[in-house]
Amino acid sequence: MKLSDETVSVLKNYSTINQNLMIKSGQALSTMSAMKNIVAKSTVAENFERDIAIYDLNEFLSSMSLFTTPEMDFQNDFVVMRSEGSNSSLKFWYSDPSVVTSVTKDITMPECEVKFSLSSDILSNVQKAAAVIGAPDMVLESGSLRVTDKKNEAANAYSTEVVNGTDDMDYKFWFKVENLKLLPGTYDVSVSSKRISHFKNTNVDIEYFIALEPESYFKSDS
Question: Per-residue pLDDT tens for 88-130?
Fold first, then answer.
């Protein structure tokens, strides 16, 4: 089996969410952060024939990088990686599933009060701005996204409008910037007052469920 570039990109993204990964048989890949505040789900082109527990996903990806377009032979207890026509190979052993974080149940999104499209450019700009000004927090309020430090009233802040038609609602939905571990791209975003959000990529079959911070609130005047 050769993993597509898209699948490798998903695995690299997952490695930023959790260092380990449980690949279940089939085409669905999911991961969950150690704090259980981020869940990511994707459907990939490859069909895995067995469950595979990877303790260190970065090590797995680095092992793949030793080969040009590696051929993956997934066996019962390990995977053998090699390049086509090469005499070199690497045996990568699976982990004990009990020490690997796995997603055990599907998430059902509650009713969402705010929905909007988050373009690739806006997402990139918000993430860059947060890095430049050292902003640990992001808030969605009055139709705008703002990155700042909520513990410092005099903190620098960057904001951009993303939602129209929310003037009749009073809300502040707080996120940790460090939880926005998204593949680049445009997303359909839904946010619920139940303190959970859903980011669905419009071009790649990947979605994220990200918990909101406790300070989040919602109040409607309608």
Answer: 999 999 999 999 988 888 899 999 999 999 999 999 999 999 9
DSSP character for 94? P
- The answer to whether 197 and 173 are in contact (CB under 8 A) is yes
Sign of CA dihedral 19, 24, 25, 30: negative
- What per-residue string of b and e applies to 186-212 under the rule 16 or more CB within 10 Å gives b? bbebbbbbebbbbbbbeebbbbbbbbb
> What residues contact 222, with CB distance under 8 A and at least 6 apart?
168, 169
**Residue 37 to residue 182: CA distance in whole angstroms:** 14
Q: Which residue type sits at 208?
A: Y
Cα-trace Rg, the chain? 20
Q: Which amino acid is at 65?
A: S
How far apart CA 187 and CA 200 sit, in angstroms, is 5
CA 130/CA 137 separation, integer angstroms: 8
